[in-house]
Structure formats: C-alpha cells, structure tokens
Amino acid sequence: xxxxxxxxxxxxxxxxxxxxxxxxxxxxxxxxxxxxxxxxxxxxxxxxxxxxxxxxxxxxxxxxxxxxxxxxxxxxxxxxxxxxxxxxxxxxxxxxxxxxxxxxxxxxxxxxxxxxxxxxxxxxxxxxxxxxxxxxxxxxxxxxxxxxxxxxxxxxxxxxxxxxxxxxxxxxxxxxxxxxxxxxxxxxxxxxxxxxxxxxxxxxxxxxxxxxxxxxxxxxxxxxxxxxx
Length: 229
Description:
Layout: H1 12-22, H2 27-37, H3 41-56, H4 68-79, H5 86-110, E1 121-127, E2 132-139, E3 144-151, E4 158-165, E5 173-177, E6 183-187, H6 190-193, E7 200-207, E8 220-225
Helix pairs in contact: 1-3
C-alpha cells in the first residue's frame, strides 16, 4: 500500500503497518514504527488503509453471543476474577452504613453523644448619647463571646469594657475591651462559659486600657440579658 521501503523492519514499512494494526509488532519495533509514524504522512495513510481493510473482513461474520461460562472465563482473564452480582458488590457498604447508624444510636441512647446542642445567646445594647448599637453574642460551640458594633463610634482616648453579671448579687466579671474593628471576639474559659445562660451583659466606659480596679469605674452605657433569639 505504500511506495519503496527504506525500513530496517522486516518486510518494510508497508508490512510493518499491517502488523502494527494487528498488534503483531514486537515492542522494540513498535517504538521504531511509531517514531516514523509521527513524521510520515503516507505511513499514517497506510495504517488507516489497513485498519479499514481488516475491518471489512469481519463484516460477513454474524454476531453471536458467547455462552455464559465462556463470558465468565473471558472476564476472569481480563479482570482477574469474575464480576460479582450488583447486590454482592453493594452489600458491604449497606452493612457498614447499618453498623454506623446502630453505633450512633447506641451512643445517643447511652448519653455518650447528645443530639441537643446549647443554644446561642444574644443581647442588644445601645447608648443613645453616643449612637452606639451593639449586639452581644455567646457561641457555646466555640466558647467565644462576640460583640458586633452595628452603629456609632468608640470614644476617643477611652475604652469600652464588657462585663458579665451572672446574677443579681454577683460581682461583674470583665470579659475584655471592645476593639476598634466592627467585631470583637473573645475566647472564654470553661468556668466563665458555665455562667453565660441567663447572665446580664453590661458595657462601661473606662480609662484607656480598661478598668484599673477590676470592677466598673465609669458610666454604664447599657445592659442586656443574654437570651435565645
């Protein structure tokens, strides 16, 4: 199918093209042939011609489904083993899911795992004179107390301090200072986190850096009780 051959392959390039299409070339000859194939347009045409020619040889052959036992042997040779039915392939995953659900239910029932989570608590705080609008937010899952400043500016050369008042007779506990950013985020230790439900939040104006005494010394701008929304 091609012109004169100058190939070192047995039979020349034309014969090599036919053997290449049939998959009969040795591995070392395949590398030589494919290197030439990438550069030789006529050789690529030869390969295409041989592919079309060999394809026509199977046209008169009627299609016949192989017997099941033959198909299983072919699949075993190709894939290493016969394929399992779909239900056998899926069953391990179903059993795993059922086992995981049973373990989770047992943990919940025994009290090791609780489906109930502590609610987030909020308190709205305002200062009419300064135009401050603050939202206090207690996030129990991360044990973080946050204050978001929605409006108003912080006083110059003064600090706003956050206080937690656990009960009517309890002394205020300082949680920290409101920062210049819109959101103040304060990690809370476990012993203070336990006091959050039902507690009152207060904001006081203090000297720069906060109260020097550990208790509010300046005016209380506003108070609010933590509650669910």
